[in-house]
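Module 6 notes. Inverse folding takes a fixed backbone as the condition and produces residue identities as the prediction. Think of it as a translation problem where the source language is geometry and the target language is the twenty amino acids. Below is one complete input and output pair. Work through it position by position during the lab.
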């Protein structure tokens, strides 16, 4: 059972990492006495533990999660708002030959969803790792001009991880750096606006094989595995929870990926035109599929 959290306080804007940088949450917030946007990041798994929005004097959390942050990574909160990788989604187990730009490698993804399927990077994927907070000058996958831009942001945090050769069956030593940053709204529409822009959260993923002069290849596909709460936390006790179907959805994609009975890609693409996946800021209920949304879409 998921728990919807109610927040009774505001975060103070901060980019500091507290006592134990490997386990203490990192707090990012827009500079304001009552920040319109704030996030709390747990270094273990790069979990977005809280994603707080303050509108019209009300603060609510946009993401689902346990009341106790220590329960992240445990069922039913596995993958909840965490990073996933090396490879997002499902890959078949067994030997796989890789080749790109003349580089060749073999991989053997470790099973965790079933004997035939490796899910989200394997049993000890990036969601289980302790990511190291770093200062922008210490980043190696961001240019000097990018570091200067990061330093000018209201609130940001950088993390790194080294995934060794053979990690979960993937080849090559892989260095990863992830940037989280919040920025204020570009404009402030009037109170009668249906869509209120309070600010933005940016997440930038960088990865590089540490192979020296040797050309290597490995699969990399990173993202956050979101569990959005949207406006559910605004429901008053004893009243129905707001229906997600009343939210508007924009899917910037042209095709869906065909899957087999194991959830693995067949390699075939199908146009989303005329299907329930064709959404351009339209309400979910306007064309909601009977089985819900659980597709892989691509541009």
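Target side of the pair, the amino acids:
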């Amino acid at each position: 059972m998921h728990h919807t959290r109610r927040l009774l306080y505001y975060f103070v804007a901060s980019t500091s990492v507290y006592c134990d940088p490997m386990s203490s949450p990192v707090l990012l917030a827009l500079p304001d006495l009552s920040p319109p946007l704030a996030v709390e990041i747990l270094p273990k798994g790069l979990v977005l533990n809280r994603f707080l929005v303050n509108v019209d004097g009300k603060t609510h959390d946009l993401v689902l999660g346990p009341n106790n942050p220590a329960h992240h990574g445990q069922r039913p909160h596995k993958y909840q708002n965490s990073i996933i990788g090396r490879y997002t989604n499902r890959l078949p187990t067994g030997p796989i030959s890789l080749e790109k730009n003349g580089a060749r490698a073999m991989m053997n993804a470790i099973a965790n969803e079933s004997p035939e399927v490796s899910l989200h990077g394997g049993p000890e994927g990036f969601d289980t790792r302790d990511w190291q907070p770093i200062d922008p000058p210490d980043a190696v996958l961001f240019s000097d001009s990018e570091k200067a831009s990061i330093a000018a942001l209201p609130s940001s945090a950088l993390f790194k991880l080294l995934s060794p050769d053979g990690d979960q069956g993937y080849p090559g030593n892989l260095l990863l750096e992830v940037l989280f940053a919040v920025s204020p709204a570009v404009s402030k529409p009037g109170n009668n606006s249906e869509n209120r822009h309070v600010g933005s959260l940016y997440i930038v993923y960088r990865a590089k094989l540490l192979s020296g002069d040797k050309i290597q290849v490995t699969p990399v596909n990173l993202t956050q595995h979101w569990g959005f709460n949207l406006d559910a936390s605004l429901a008053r006790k004893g009243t129905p929870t707001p229906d997600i179907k009343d939210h508007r959805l924009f899917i910037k994609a042209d095709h869906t990926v065909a899957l087999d009975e194991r959830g693995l890609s067949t390699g075939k693409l199908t146009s989303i035109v005329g299907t329930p996946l064709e959404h351009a800021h339209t309400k979910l209920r306007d064309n909601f599929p009977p089985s819900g949304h659980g597709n892989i879409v691509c541009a």
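Reference fact for the lab report: Confidence is low (pLDDT under 50) at residues 1-21.
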